[in-house]
Amino acid sequence: MKNLEVAELLNEIADYLEFEEDSFRVRAYRKAALVIEGMSEDIDQVWKENKLTELPGIGEGIAKKIDEFLKTGRLKYLDELKKKTPVDMEALGRIEGIGPKTILKLYKELKVKNVTDLEKAAKQGKIQEIKGLGPTVEQNILKSIKFARKTSERVPLGFALASAEEVVSMLKTMKEVNRASIAGSTRRMKETIGDIDILATSKNPEKVIEFFTKMPNVADVLAKGPTKSSIRLKEGIQVDLRVLDDKIFGAALLYFTGNKEHNIILRKIAIEKNLKLSEYGLFDKRTSKLVAGKTEEEIYKKLGMDYIEPEMREDEGEIELAQHHMLPKLIGYNDIKGDLQMHTKWSDGNNTIDEMAIAAKKLMHEYICITDHTGKLAIANALDEKRIIAQRKEIEKINKKISGIKILQGTEVNITDYGDLDMKDSVLKDFDIVVASIHSGFKNPKEKITKRMVKAMENENVDIIAHPTGRLITKRESYDIDLDEVFDAAKRTNTIMEINSYPERMDLRDSHVRAAIKAGVKLVISTDAHNTDQLHFIKLGIGTARRGWATKDDIINTKSLKGMLRMLKK
């Protein structure tokens, strides 16, 4: 699907139009981007059927630009806007806390054209002198520049994984390919990746390489040899392919999955057993005879340990546990029975309640919880008391109509600056599940942020804390919060902590999951989906849970509906 690609294109146009101070066209492009990003249907298919103008907010002008982009992969209009605009919008736009309007202001006042200019102005104290900005904004800009530089070369797993899976699927259509698998940090489900590693086996590697370099989604061929090749996809991600002999596939998969430290320890253990381990197999050191190589499982067995799941291979004690047959049985990718955070057209989602339910049913979910925003969060079209009652009636009606899945009415309620909830307790008590989260005051000091969250958990109506650290991967750092104190409070109040599966969040992160489990806190894996397609994000949350060594017992939505509800406060 090219929905995200097209939406990003339209938002980029809107960013440049901010410089022309054309608010009407800015709003038009933003609206069109929002519509396309939230579509469950493939924009490419809508375009092929010549139905672009049937989409809400897509007029003839925008439709023509989408048409040109999908035909050619470029857009002349955007190129012209870039030439006319004197600043590096793309680079400056990656700095948290400054949008197009602020960029325009900085250019007018200080002639800031790029990140170097921005950093210089901030260090000289010039930004704080601009009306509406001030010293706090200036310091936050400096922090954001540092963060942006640190993450600029990384791609969120949620955006890379789909591309990796698509490439593997395409390779598997070839009769010449026996096996194909994702490797590297993508296979370990690490939250960000540098590039994608793929391994395949074939007796005709050159034909596989030729196919690989000519796939429809290839933008550039970076390197091409008889058994190895590197390409850059149209999404901008580099993919490296190695074609191997089937008898060493397991050894290569083990080696190229990593991580480096895990592999080093395995090689040391092999040496102690008079063996030699490499990407080409496990060999008897004295005879050079291949001992194992076809599968990872047989290599681990020969080294005297249980098989270690890819997500655990981070040199964090997993090898010792494997040697003593004490590895935890990780939650499986098919163990989730329901999704407890999602949004519909009632607030800021793009699909109806019944559409979300039907899509979740196809994923074999037994229950879902609709958690549309309530209270005063205007940007999310939050429900008031009257609309809450109306939604409850609709859910009751749909539950009678759709069999095989139970729809719960929940809410995502905002935690205020003082730790209160922006919806009355008398209203909250009637929801099946109450999810509370922080949506403002991200720059509060650690003590205040922590107190806000702890106070919210002490409310008897709050069942779950959503995206507990507030981070957006490669875009926004976590707010400063004492998670040890938060987890202690969660245990004390029986509040569930969320592993948010949304690609930009993946919050809690893996290390936090392990800390929560150690503290005796129960967890939930939710998608935070805003359309039906995003329900598939659950895989990312499961991957994070597995990296955090979580078992089925640690995750409440691996239980049946009755079992899950028993684990809540109510």
- Summing up helix and strand content along with how strands pair, one would put the structural category as alpha/beta
Average pLDDT level? 90
Our Rg estimate from Cα atoms comes to 25 Å
CATH homologous group name of the largest domain = Metal-dependent hydrolases
In CATH, the topology of the largest domain is named TIM Barrel
How many domain units?
A: 4
What oligomeric assembly is this protein in?
single chain
**Gross morphology:** globular
Q: Low-confidence runs (pLDDT<50, min 5 residues)?
A: none
Tell me roughly what share of residues is in helical segments.
Answer: 40-55%
Termini separation (Å)? 41 Å
Number of strands: 18
User: How would you characterize the largest beta sheet?
Assistant: 8 strands, parallel
State the name of the first-level CATH class of the largest domain.
Alpha Beta
- What amount of the residues lies in strands? 5-15%
